[in-house]
Amino acid sequence: MNSTDKKFRRRAEARPDEMLDAALAVFAEKGFAATKVDEVARRAGVSKGTVYLYFPSKEALMEGIVRRAVAPIAERALPDMAQFEGDPRLPIAMLVHTLQNLLSDPNNLAVPRLILREIMNFPAIAELYRREVLGKVIPALTALVARGVASGQLRKVDPEMTVRSIVGPIVAHVALSEVFGVRPEEGLALDRLVENHLDILFHGISPAGGEETP
Amino acid sequence: MNSTDKKFRRRAEARPDEMLDAALAVFAEKGFAATKVDEVARRAGVSKGTVYLYFPSKEALMEGIVRRAVAPIAERALPDMAQFEGDPRLPIAMLVHTLQNLLSDPNNLAVPRLILREIMNFPAIAELYRREVLGKVIPALTALVARGVASGQLRKVDPEMTVRSIVGPIVAHVALSEVFGVRPEEGLALDRLVENHLDILFHGISPAGGEETP
Amino acid sequence: MNSTDKKFRRRAEARPDEMLDAALAVFAEKGFAATKVDEVARRAGVSKGTVYLYFPSKEALMEGIVRRAVAPIAERALPDMAQFEGDPRLPIAMLVHTLQNLLSDPNNLAVPRLILREIMNFPAIAELYRREVLGKVIPALTALVARGVASGQLRKVDPEMTVRSIVGPIVAHVALSEVFGVRPEEGLALDRLVENHLDILFHGISPAGGEETP
Amino acid sequence: MNSTDKKFRRRAEARPDEMLDAALAVFAEKGFAATKVDEVARRAGVSKGTVYLYFPSKEALMEGIVRRAVAPIAERALPDMAQFEGDPRLPIAMLVHTLQNLLSDPNNLAVPRLILREIMNFPAIAELYRREVLGKVIPALTALVARGVASGQLRKVDPEMTVRSIVGPIVAHVALSEVFGVRPEEGLALDRLVENHLDILFHGISPAGGEETP
DNA sequence: CATGAATGAGAGTTCATTCAT
DNA sequence: CATGAATGAACTCTCATTCAT
């Protein structure tokens, strides 16, 4: 009860996570290059040396942040989509709404923002993201669209390219807002964007006289 | 005796431009932070001091690159679009094809790539881009869509959000390719993307039984 | 095992002082501008970075030197003088002799020499010196002379200007020697200067038939 | 009358002097180290290269300034003093008043100020000054005092040290004012200083019951 | 485990000086 | 004579990383 009391144990085990939290906060605020390890340590309530006890380098902090954020994505909603058999517009709408929910919470936005900001300086992160997220989401979506086209539930569109039409408007909307500060008066208004986007998308990919948006 | 001998190059008025070319090349290759002014100078065939003769700082090189690239954009195709009276799908298709042409040339791609890579560390550049490019293109496009909706040539879509549906797929396509290396086997295949995109888009925004893609 | 082995010196609280010593030595030798921080570090037995661990800039070293040297001056002999009630020539002689002692030791001379050399490039130091040293010594001396005049122990001299007559000859003597290398054959011969100076001064400010030099 | 008209000739011949004027102005304002040759050139209305046409280095400008200012001093009032036969207090008073006049004009103050500021970084200048000015003034003054002592017109003072008592108060007064900004409310008030100084000095060096200040 | 003092390679920037025109 | 574009050595300061305690 002395050296193993709550405080001590929690600290010992949660340390790496606390450091990633601190690093994310500072990276998000100042960018990777402008962030000093000293400040990450301070924000995490430890000394600079301790950071290096858990992470071999400043870059490793960056990778740790991304790895932690990316991990749950792959396991989550993907399997469902891949095996879905019915109207492909349903999982497409689900995916879009999942994205919407994800992006609505500023907390969730911090990591993508950071990735967007730094990715071109971190080939390893780009590769990780490509492999763990895009490499799973894109093929699943492509297959979904392809099945829809094959079954006649969708018009004869190019499945691979259509994936860009599904996520593109959302990406563009968030990028405009986050990078350039171009946003509607209401704020992000993601719901408005999603509604209009799905409306156009489904009109665009459904056969003439096709069903309405699910 | 040719135009590149030493004597001619001295005092050449093209000096600043040559430096921006060199800077663009190195920034594109290594990123802003990892680029040494020394290397920009070497690549431009001058000494480090000479760079500072024309640009007060390394950052000024970055700004110079963007400013030079952004300048012609605003003056170019915008006015036409704003005053166009007929089928709004025509100028939309034109804009998309203009983008396609622009992005097809790897030379033209270098600046947007660089901007994408560094913009979050250069608020001034983001602001410049927002003001000079987005601040002109987006309102023009929005008005165009709004007119189309008003005239009944387009379905009742949200003009402001629809702009994201027009450029989003292209942005996503280029970003996937340039940032993550996710691209079709043929390479960028921008034509395939554009064809599919316009197909879906126009089906998505045209009234039921509307005209075909222009 | 002695007090200068590596382990003991690490974290020593004397670090800043050691650096000031080193800086003073190099500044005195080469002047501020011609001194490289690297050399200060080497002379202090540390690395360049360590200097910046304790002092934020090269200028801060300069200020540190002066501040450290100036600190004890104000607290020392001033209070006595201010409250002295008897013959004002006594504390004047004491002050002059204190100066004489101070300036006799080449070690003590280093700081004034450095100040003299660099002061015009360091307004902050001039201000510090003015406030902490001159701002206390001069008014005290002035008051002393004024009291002497009022009590009739001194002739009717201008107290404020007489202060210049008290310290001027010493300043001139040291400046001639230190700056221009003009000095008697014996060396500085401060005692000779002081004796002659006080002889003239006291004859100059005492009433006709006044007392002898104390 | 074409290529030798006033403008051209004056420029050609007065160039070096104009450059020294410009250099003095900038050195006085910013100090030697902080002055850029570029600015001296600009202030002189010529190009940087032209400065190097007349002066081999930045330091040479400094030396030129001092040499030009020092030249007339030696030839001027010195001979008179050396051969003066009457009351030595007369030439002493004259010297002090000459100094007073010299220092009263801010224009004349610029060079001494600059010398004071930079001399310790320019051994050559110190040496020049020592040789050309001090080496002549001090022996002359010393001899004068010695003669006064020998003739009984002055008390038995140490001639060499007494020189410090003659110029010291003035030096101290100017240094206090120029270096530390310590000055009477009226401004420099050199006349007040000189009057009090000579009063004390002559009372100090004259035999008891000696004559009044000339 | 944790600390934080110490390191030192490295980069941006300045500016006296040169020299082709 | 005059120019001013070009040079490049030199310097200050930063900060990721190490390691003795």
Automatic annotation (TrEMBL), chains A, B, C, D:
Protein name: TetR family transcriptional regulator
GO MF annotation, one: transcription cis-regulatory region binding
Stored PROSITE patterns: HTH_TETR_2
DNA-binding region (UniProt annotation): 36-55
Transmembrane segments: none
InterPro entries cross-referenced by the UniProt entry: Homeodomain-like_sf, HTH-type_TetR-like_transc_reg, HTH_TetR, Tet_transcr_reg_TetR-rel_C_sf, TetR_C
Keywords recorded for this protein, A-Z: DNA-binding, Transcription, Transcription regulation
Domain named HTH tetR-type: residues: 13-73
Signal peptide start and end residues: none
Gene3D superfamilies linked to this entry: Tetracycline Repressor, domain 2 (1.10.357.10)
Organism of this sequence: Devosia riboflavina
